[in-house]
Amino acid sequence: MKMLLTVEIPHEPFNSLVRAGTANEVIGRILESIKPEAAYFTEQDGIRCGIFLINVQNSSEVPAFAEPFFSQFPGQLQVPHCDEPGRSAKGRHGGARQDVGVISAR
Q: Considering the entire predicted model, what is its pTM?
C-alpha cells in the first residue's frame, strides 16, 4: 500500500548539519535507506519537512521507514495511507482501510 511519510526536520540539528556541510550526505543516506518512490522537501508551519511516497506491504514495516529520521532528527512523523486512482477506501482485500497515524520522537 502507498503511504505518505511526512517528516518534521527541526531547525536544530539540521542547521548545524548545513553549517558543517554534511546535510546532503545525511539526507542522501536516509533516502537510500527508505528508497521512496518520490521525495519532496518543503516547509510546514515554519518547520522544514520532507514528504515521501513509500510503498509499504504491511503497517508493521512503518518503524523501519521512521527510524532513519528518528536517529537524526527529533520531531514528528505522519504516515497516512493514500489511495490510488480506481481503488476504493475499503482497500485491496475488501476490508476496512487501516491508517497509520502520528509517530513522535519528542
A: 0.76
